[in-house]
Amino acid sequence: MAQFGFENDIHSILKLDMPITNAPMARWQRKASSSNTSALSALSPGKSANASMSSSKTPSKTPGKNKKQTPSKMGGDRFIPTRNGKQMDVASFLLTKENDPVEANNTTLATFQESQKAWSMSLNGYNIEDAKILHLGGKPLNAPEGYQNNLKVLYSQVTTPASSKKTRYISATPDRILDAPQLRNDFYLNILDWSSNNMLAVALHNNVYLWDATRGDIIFLMKMESEEDYICSLSWTKEGNYLAVGTSDCKVQLWDVELQKRLRSMGSHTSRVGSLSWNDHILSSGARSGHIHHHDVRMAEHHISTLTGHTQEVCGLKWSPDGRYLASGGNDNLVHVWPRVQEGGAGNESQAVRCWSEHQGAVKALGWCAWQPNILATGGGTSDRHIRIWNVNSGSCVSSIDTQSQISSLVFAPNYKELVSGHGYAHNNVVVWKYPSLTKIAELNGHEDRVLSLVLSPDNSTIATVAGDETIRMWKSFELDPVKKKAKDRVAKSTSGGIHQSIR
């Protein structure tokens, strides 16, 4: 029994349900005593109500509530982590001066506005007061003098160099019109050519006439013996002293223009010769049979080689300005590029360098670029109507455009780096294109029938067009500025001079 009594005493000692005499005051007791004390101190006049608050360890209200959101000191708050220091200075100035009298603020406000303008100019490059989304009054803003970062200027009235460049005036009326009676209206013939001596040759049925563009004189050169025969093609030598004439009786004639005398008649074709092109002493001729013949005019046996790439009439034939390639276009819709003729005629000139079949119509219009000798422009007939620009070196088509009209001639005008095209059905006009973008610059209208041929004057300032309406029109559309013309003449004089071999 004594053992059980001892255990009961131990359990009674370890029990925690009895009050603890030396323990600290409970939280609810502290709150009750603090509320009673504050009520009593509020009734007693001699004691401050803040004494109990300061003596109390636990505040009566949750911290953070009823607390002002404005920070006690300047420099930024916890809601906006980054803020310009100058903006805070402005805000502080406005807050401190808003309750001051208006008279006292006049001078300080002016000072503030000046400093604000200076800050805006240094930070943004312009006065922020003038930078509005819709600026209805005043001139457009310009960058301040000496300011380098023009990207921060909102807009400017100063024109860019591209927009300030004036486009030249191109007259829509021809400078001169010549009558061309009995003109043969045949798309496949090449009956107009302009020499380096400023002589324009034109074939009127079976006659050849020359027009001296310098003096305005008209010279009758030759007439074929048979009335049934007609002139099919004309081509001047580089020197401008001799004229090659292709005829319908399968001949190629050479004429001395100064003496008005026929030097020789070369027969090698079996059909009419509709296209001619010179390369020094080599004369290339294209016929209706599809054959192209090379003639060495210095030799008695003039026929040195034959090119057989076309199956129908060769209506376009042009040597490149550097003499490396011969371009040919035919009624079979093909374009061939042939290599230079080797000395003596022994070589691979009978193999075409390039052959393009993209055109869907007869290719008569051929034009080599004077300042890029590897660039060739070709134009298709009525069923194609496309101008295509080719890179002969790579064989790729650089660009193309649909002109919506039959193309009979193409000429590059070097004075302004432009391309000129002559058109038949349905527009019957001349179009000037910017190269290489092929954007249309001007249209020259006036012909009442299709334009058959188009040639450029030796000074590259005028184009002559002959059409089925039996007129030849001169369009003075590419005149250089006087300053550029003088510079070009000086360069031409410095590079001119050389020995030219005549035809014997």
UniProtKB/TrEMBL annotation:
**Could you tell me where the Low complexity compositional bias lies?**
32-63
- Alphabetized Gene3D superfamilies for the sequence: YVTN repeat-like/Quinoprotein amine dehydrogenase (2.130.10.10)
Q: Which InterPro entries match?
A: Cdc20/Fizzy, WD40/YVTN_repeat-like_dom_sf, WD40_CDC20-Fz, WD40_repeat_dom_sf, WD40_rpt
Domain CDC20/Fizzy WD40: residue ranges? 178-475
**Any one cellular-component term (Gene Ontology):** anaphase-promoting complex
List the GO biological process terms. Answer: anaphase-promoting complex-dependent catabolic process; positive regulation of anaphase-promoting complex-dependent catabolic process
For this UniProt record, give its keywords in alphabetical order, as a comma-separated list: Repeat, WD repeat
Q: What is this protein called?
A: CDC20/Fizzy WD40 domain-containing protein
Please give the organism: Sphaeramia orbicularis
- What taxonomic lineage is listed for the species of origin? Eukaryota, Metazoa, Chordata, Craniata, Vertebrata
